[in-house]
Design brief:
Oligomer: heterodimer
Shape of chain A: globular
Order of helices and strands of chain B: HEEEEEEEHHHHH
Distance between the termini of chain A: 80 Å
CATH class of the largest domain in chain B: Mainly Beta
Number of strands of chain B: 7
Order of helices and strands of chain A: HHHHHEEEHHHHHHHHHH
Number of helices of chain A: 15
Structural class of chain B: alpha+beta
CATH superfamily of the largest domain in chain B: SH3 Domains
Radius of gyration of chain A: 25 Å
Strand content of chain B: 15-25%
Radius of gyration of chain B: 24 Å
Helix content of chain A: 55-70%
Number of domains of chain B: 3
CATH topology of the largest domain in chain B: SH3 type barrels
Strand order of the largest sheet of chain A: 1-3-2
Largest sheet of chain B: 5 strands, antiparallel
CATH architecture of the largest domain in chain B: Roll
Shape of chain B: elongated
Number of domains of chain A: 2
Strand content of chain A: under 5%
Largest sheet of chain A: 3 strands, mixed
Chain lengths: ~325, ~170
């Protein structure tokens, strides 16, 4: 009897040892895995330090001991040095107020007009446009910012290029579409552009802009009252998007997020990397502004390659080459 | 003695299981997210959830999470959910919110969401003033008017075995 009882106790202990980790697999590791997929694939590149705010008329508190910090100072909670540091931090945050969606859309809409104006206008093919919109919407739906409207258009230029302007406007040239081999590659390209919007890359550039220092709030009312300010904004972002290009790290970030969004949609996650390689090898690309506004294909390929091991069984995911070929009619 | 030992062991197992089973809260990313009867894209839609709705994760099956939301239990395609609480309800959002910053912006974005339609008059006037061709302005308006309806997108995903329809 004693042996039986001991055996039973041992069995229970064994069960306990097995049950806890296995249960935590179901409800712990699995969630972690999904969370990992819902999160950016890798840690975002370090963001540049914002420029310190210049003294402004609209910020009466910034040189004095206003607010809680000033109160803390006068009550002797903080010493002078700490107060000053805290005050500077508050001022910096105030000067870098994020741009709201309505304003983002106004800036993005104006830049979208500029994209059509500079790059050949709209390409007329309703069926292809519908197809691009379906692929684009599919990746936008699983992005980290699915709650805004996304609009996709095809540009009538043979130069391979793709753009995103703030607020949800995405463009792909017919030249680029002709270079793409399958739907997974198209999804990767569109998702890269969607990632620029979800991560608000162009707006980050604006918020850090030297030329906009002294402006604490960018509302439509402010923009409407001061047309010079809207001019400045548009010039600044146009210069970034169409001439200088975004910071290299932001492009790499868009590649990683783009691949992730395409993967979440169910596409082969290696497709963007493959297309970047193809683009790098193409002579068509030499005359495009794509070269001056993006890091080299080799750099982009290598960075994607480094982190590709996190996509297990990637080869099982579809590329949908046939559906793409039918849509592009070739 | 044995009885005591058994009680202790059952107690330990109970504690272990209940702590592991404590549901984790995630949030709905976009309004009109489907809550479905089964972990299948074609299963019955029990209801639609609004953006920011907290859901308790009960179970995982493939690309679906079994969740409990507002007394209802069902399945949601996992990439329609986020672990991050809606903006303004924690972390940096609160810090910035206290300083009169990000929280307000997040609230505005959430309130407008997809209700902001069309090219802003500020953008259009600026483009006209700069002498941009009316065709380019019209192209943006057309781009904004173009809509892919939910059913068409659903059919497209199903045909390609993508999204919730993926194997």
């Amino acid at each position: 009897m004693k042996t039986k009882t001991s055996f039973f106790i041992l069995f229970l202990l064994g069960l306990l040892a097995w049950a806890l980790p296995s249960y935590s697999f179901n409800f712990g590791d699995v969630l972690k895995e999904v969370e990992k997929s819902s999160r950016p694939p890798e840690k975002s590149p370090p963001k540049e330090e914002p420029e310190p705010a210049k003294p402004q008329a609209q910020q009466p508190q910034q040189n004095g001991g206003g607010g809680l910090i000033g109160l803390g100072d006068s009550l002797g909670i903080f010493d002078k040095k700490t107060s000053k540091i805290l005050q500077q931090s508050v001022n910096t945050l105030k000067a870098l107020q994020p741009i709201g969606y309505e304003e983002e859309k106004a800036i993005g809409g104006r830049l979208a007009v500029e994209v059509f104006n500079r790059y050949g206008g709209a390409y007329e093919d309703p069926e292809l446009l519908r197809y691009v919109n379906l692929v684009g919407q599919a990746v936008a739906e699983v992005s980290n910012r699915p709650d805004i409207d996304y609009h996709f258009a095809i540009l009538n230029t043979e130069y391979p290029n793709a753009f995103a302007t703030p607020g949800g406007y995405v463009f792909v040239s017919i030249g680029l579409l002709k270079m793409i081999e399958n739907e997974a590659q198209l999804a990767g390209v569109l998702a890269h552009e969607v990632a620029h919007i979800t991560r608000k890359h162009a707006l980050q550039t604006l918020e850090r802009s030297r030329s906009l220092q002294g402006v604490s709030s960018l509302t439509l009312t402010v923009m409407d009252k001061d047309p010079g300010l809207f001019d400045k904004l548009i010039d600044e972002v146009s210069n970034t998007l169409f001439t200088k290009g975004l910071d290299k790290n932001l492009e790499f970030e868009a590649d990683k997020y783009g691949r992730e969004f395409a993967y979440r949609t169910g596409y082969y996650p290696g497709a963007l990397k493959k297309f970047i390689q193809r683009l790098g090898a193409s002579k068509k690309n030499s005359g495009s502004i794509f070269n001056s506004t993006h890091p080299t294909s080799r750099e982009r390929y290598n960075l994607l390659n480094k982190s590709s091991s996190r996509y297990k069984k990637a080869s099982l995911y579809p590329t949908l080459g046939k559906r793409f070929q039918v849509a592009i009619k070739r | 003695m044995n009885r005591l030992l058994f009680s202790f062991l059952f107690f330990l197992i109970g504690i272990g299981l209940s702590s592991q089973a404590a549901a984790e809260t995630w949030y709905v990313k976009k309004s009109s997210t489907k809550l479905q009867a089964e972990a299948k894209a074609r299963s019955k839609v029990l209801g639609k959830l609004n953006k920011g709705t907290p859901v308790d994760i009960l179970e995982k099956s493939g690309k679906f999470f079994k969740v409990s939301a507002g007394g209802e239990t069902g399945w949601i395609f996992r990439f329609k959910l986020t672990k991050k609480a809606p903006s303004g309800s924690g972390g940096d959002g609160d810090v910035l919110g206290a300083l009169g910053g990000q929280q307000q912006i997040a609230a505005r974005e959430s309130a407008y969401g997809s209700s902001i339609r069309g090219l802003s008059p500020v953008s259009e006037e600026h483009a006209i003033k700069k002498g941009v061709s009316p065709a380019s302005i019209e192209s943006v308006k057309e781009m904004e008017r173009y809509k892919v309806d939910d059913d068409a997108l659903d059919k497209f995903l199903e045909e390609g075995r993508l999204g919730a329809y993926a194997d």
